[in-house]
Amino acid sequence: MRSGFIALVGRPNVGKSTLMNWIVKEKVAIVSSKAQTTRDRIKGILTKTDTQYIFVDTPGIHKPQHLLGEYMTKTAIDTLKEVDLIVMVIDGKAEIGKGDKFVRERIEEAGGTPRVAVINKIDDLTDEDIEKKKIEIKEKLGKFNEIYTISGEYGINVDEFLKGIKKYLEDGVMYYPEDMYTDMPMYKVITEIVREKILWNTREEIPHSVAIEITDVKRRENGKDCYNINIYVERDSQKGIIIGNKGKMLKKIGIEARKDIEQVLERGIYLNLWVKVKDKWRKKKPFLKEMGYIIE
Ligand SMILES: Nc1nc2c(ncn2[C@@H]2O[C@H](COP(=O)(O)OP(=O)(O)OP(=O)(O)O)[C@@H](O)[C@H]2O)c(=O)[nH]1
């Protein structure tokens, strides 16, 4: 048996969450076309007959712009020092830029941890594009132990990638029981589902300034739990967008979120969503602490 921790790193939007979801085939990481949606270290665990892969999906590494950003980057760098392997995911469809170089520098800070590069989104690339990308990586990002080419969305070459990275894992250990696919607490899974639905439904209109909190769970007489969940935004205008015309948007978000949550919990629930304005919440440390984004 081999087992080990693998950090998936890369600038926002390269496809880390999509890849992890494909690998563990369960809803453990949020997928969105928006940048920086994954705020927490989430482990996706895949146990095969003789290998257990524990994936740590790091927050999108980027230059800190505000308090929440600082927290996300620090978490990501700490992760890199602890793992057995760093997998740097690169968007094969985009030119390698400042964001990728910034991530590469953070990998250097992790010291001697082995690192491989993954060119993602090859479903949209020609063989020639892929070869060019490999050269670009060597020129702009330097040396990796290996370079893999995959598509996380369609699962192309993902098995080969998994077999290939087995050698970096520790021999003779198994960290988690076989049937476990995430150690993310259930409340976090639930709030992430709500956040995902908001981001999907509101498209470009709602920025990342949204935080979700379960305020209470009450059991109704028929035995079903009723979840009350607050959605915090920064401005009245954002509140308006989420609620929508005659409350239609909030209703849609609620229905979609409830369905996914019921699937995860394997039972029926009631879900009440409340939208609240907290001005500039990202800059307010006590509030961030309360929401679990800062641990001191
Ligand atoms: N064509 C193609 N698109 C992909 C692939 N993987 C991901 N995408 C798209 O790329 C976008 C970003 O994917 P995510 O998985 O959210 O990216 P991420 O790196 O986890 O982003 P953050 O959580 O913001 O760090 C989404 O629109 C995906 O549909 C792929 O293999 N092929």
Automatic annotation (TrEMBL):
For the region G3, what residue ranges are annotated? 57-60
Region described as G4: spans on this chain: 120-123
- Return the PROSITE patterns for the record: G_ERA, KH_TYPE_2
Q: Where in the cell is it found?
A: Cytoplasm; Cell membrane
What is one cellular component GO term in this UniProt entry? cytosol
Q: Where is this protein chiefly located?
A: cytoplasm
rRNA-binding as UniProt keyword: yes
Query: Does the entry feature the keyword Kinase, yes or no?
Result: no
* Residue ranges occupied by any Era-type G domain in the UniProt entry: 2-171
State what this protein does: An essential GTPase that binds both GDP and GTP, with rapid nucleotide exchange. Plays a role in 16S rRNA processing and 30S ribosomal subunit biogenesis and possibly also in cell cycle regulation and energy metabolism.
Provide the protein name: GTPase Era
**Name of the gene encoding the protein in the UniProt record:** era
